[in-house]
């Protein structure tokens, strides 16, 4: 096989197609090396052996691409901002981007290896829950520009403080070769500005034209801010406001991210893909402002990796929900069930049994928690 003579890469042997690379990784539950024969039988043209080889090959391939590489990180809103950046940039060129939230040491290099040679832009989501992970991803991606959505309290257990989170996220701005982008309302804006190695772009988080354009697309000031950040990047590469407005027509997010579904006359907003205190409060504000014919019901589950202040942070979220005057606030999980709310359950099972009696036709329901709480299963059946 000639160097880079492949059509993509995957670490799932079931997804191998002729011409692809199969990435054989040893995980906690399975060893990808056991599936090499199946991958070759399905037409794999090469085997990438392990994490180190994956990172090295992705870095080399990235250097062969003409695409400008945009890195997106932050405590919340990464996937939303990545998807908006992709949509806005599509007006001025061919874009390849992270699928879902494949944003770690496996997903990011595989995303790079799947980037077409003729792509003009490569938009990469970069996640981190331990110090040093953004630097490792930048070593592979070598970003041209970096975007930090916010510095919040996600994964506080491992970073110790918001300052620690700012230092981690700021690595992307330090490593960006062209420019870095952050909103003026970012909690650690001054530190991010200091860390930025190139031009630093401060963005108005609530431009009026975007407030109007985002109405009915994605609610909440936090999403307007995400869109403003995405547009700031796209504008540098030639996108216009008219391009952005057109791109928002029919825009939707992947997975359980503000995904609306009507069942038995009840409107559900499934935002249960992930959660941290900042995204919880932003979602609650947007939800409380959403009109409905019946009552608002917020089903809020546990958030993880918050460290010793987890109980206090859960209380902060539930206190905010109650102050908003939401008629029915339901807490689910070990931490959430201890907070001030109308109904509390330590586990999801008992709520599933009686939930249909708590809601009526015309109601609107928000489902928000960390992914492993499986709140979306309330919609099953």
Can you give a write-up of this model?
The protein has 381 residues and is of the alpha/beta class. The protein folds into 3 domains: 9-49, Udp-n-acetylmuramoylalanyl-d-glutamate--2,6- Diaminopimelate Ligase, Chain: A, domain 1 (3-Layer(aba) Sandwich); 65-247, Mur-like, catalytic domain (UDP-N-acetylmuramoyl-L-alanine:D-glutamate ligase); 259-379, Protein-Tyrosine Phosphatase, Chain A (Alpha-Beta Complex), CATH 3.90.190.20. It has helices at residues 36-41, 50-64, 78-89, 107-113, 133-141, 156-159, 162-175, 189-195, 208-214, 221-236, 241-247, 277-288, 310-323, 348-358, and strands spanning 9-10, 21-24, 46-49, 68-73, 95-97, 121-125, 145-148, 179-183, 199-203, 259-263, 266-270, 296-301, 328-332, 343-345, 364-368. It has a 6-stranded parallel sheet, sandwiched between helices. The chain has a 6-stranded mixed sheet with strand order 10-11-15-12-13-14, with helices on both faces. The protein has a 3-stranded parallel sheet with strand order 1-2-3. The longest helix has 16 residues, at 221-236.
Outline the fold blueprint.
Layout: E1 9-10, E2 21-24, H1 36-41, E3 46-49, H2 50-64, E4 68-73, H3 78-89, E5 95-97, H4 107-113, E6 121-125, H5 133-141, E7 145-148, H6 156-159, H7 162-175, E8 179-183, H8 189-195, E9 199-203, H9 208-214, H10 221-236, H11 241-247, E10 259-263, E11 266-270, H12 277-288, E12 296-301, H13 310-323, E13 328-332, E14 343-345, H14 348-358, E15 364-368
Parallel strand pairs: 1-2, 2-3, 4-6, 4-7, 5-6, 7-8, 8-9, 11-15, 12-13, 12-15, 13-14
Antiparallel strand pairs: 10-11
Helix pairs in contact: 2-4, 3-10, 5-7, 7-8, 12-13
